[in-house]
Amino acid sequence: MASEFQHTKLRAMFDAFDVDGDGYLEEADFTALAARWGGLARVRTEADLAARVRDVMLGWWQHLSTTVDTDGAGRISMAGILAMVDRLPSMHETVTATADTVFDAVDENGDGRISRGEHQRLIDVWHGRGIETGSTFDLLDQDGDGYLTRPEFAELWSQFWISDDPTYPGNYLCGPFTGAPTG
């Protein structure tokens, strides 16, 4: 069962995905999310990456709708998302594959690293608006080299979706959130 901490950190994601604000995620919300990601520079110019991004976003909708939409209404509540989070630890390869696609979409110059600016764009696209991140990137950049490599990003991505430990830096991969521990 998802913890209160997981609920708190995923609430911002749920609200960002819920484009029409009706309290449910529907296929149209994931289509809109894919369109937002389609606006990233590298995704706009690389057709194969654009297809991968769309497949990942809509693939998660398909997975959610078949796994947690138990009444077949075509919509997922926050409780459904939290039920899915309980299953993610057994889906590590799927989570990592999603991380690879997101990494490629955000790595604008294709240098195999995500810079502070590229990370900011990830957060803004994910939320559908500009988000003040403060020192969030510094929490993520554990080795202090100014970049996130693919392995670093994959670990942070897994921490975000799976971790219940508030001390893990990956909890902040998608930006700060209300109710996050301080200090």
TrEMBL record:
The keyword Metal-binding applies. The keyword Repeat applies. Pfam families: EF-hand_7, EF-hand_8. Residues 5-40, 94-129, 137-163 form the EF-hand domain. This is EF-hand domain-containing protein. It comes from Streptomyces lienomycini. PROSITE patterns: EF_HAND_1, EF_HAND_2. Keywords: Metal-binding, Repeat.
